[in-house]
Amino acid sequence: MATFKTYDSVGAKEDVSDVISMLNKHETPFTSSLTNRTVGQKTYEWQEDEQEGGQDNAQVEGFDAVEEDLTTTEMRSNTTQIFSRTIRLSGSVEATEHYGRKSELARQLVKKGKALKLDRERACVGVDQVAVLGSSTTPRRHASAFQLIDAGNKIENAATAAPLAETTLRSAIRKNYDEGGKARRFMVAPYVAEQTAEFAGNASRTREITGKNAKEIVHVVDVYTTALGTLSIETNREMKRDYGLLWNPEDWKNVTLKGRGWFRETLAKTGDNTKIMLAGEYGLQHNNFKASTLVTNIGE
User: Fold this and answer.
1) Phi, psi of 243 (to 5 degrees)
2) Which residues of 197-235 are buried (b: 16+ CB within 10 A; e: fewer)?
3) Among 140, 177, 209, 237, which residue has the least CB neighbours within 10 Å?
4) Domains of the chain, with CATH numbers?
């Protein structure tokens, strides 16, 4: 009798990897760096004050005290934005065995959860959006980070979009310092981070690689230091491509409407399917509009 071989068999599984990999795009360096503030209203406020600078101050003996003009605080506000993703799977899909996962529902929940975090990051630093209070037909939108920065703290890289100039970055650092800011990070899109590696000053610097990595080539600027401070160059896939943000996480807050942090809701059944909604309601706060500096008009 002839030997029965795999070539003769029917129904063998295809050679498919049981591990499904996803691109690691769920990093959210801006929102993940913030502390949280919980508010009880969808439109929330905070106050900022400005410290007076030093001035010539010398009085004669026996002087009469003269009252000075006083300034009040400035009220700032923003609104919360509702973020949501919903999945719907048929009963048959969930019952069917799939390569690489025990549950299609669980896989989709993980994917949509990561997507929600990216949506949130994008609303903060991926778009330059103004606050929209919303209505029954218009969704609320919180002002993005760029709308929460003083107009005087916005530095134009060039009249028209152009690669980031080192002089522009130094001007932005100086502006931030002069306004009392303490920026520690410079957040940019990936292609802008590559441009910093082309700064003239970097050409004269080398990094010694020894041991097993002796053949490694390093072409990057991850820290930029001037007499006025040190910045870490921070790459963000969701960052608005033509902007660069000098910032310090201590000056910003992630705002959550009370009871509306990320949550999962199984919706009522309307047939042979399961519907699950992931949602959350968040806003953004910049404690002082002059604490950060924005660079605009960065091109490739």
Assistant:
1) -120, 155
2) eebeeeeeeeeeeeeeeeeeeeeebeebeeeebebebbb
3) 209
4) 31-47+73-296 (3.90.1690)
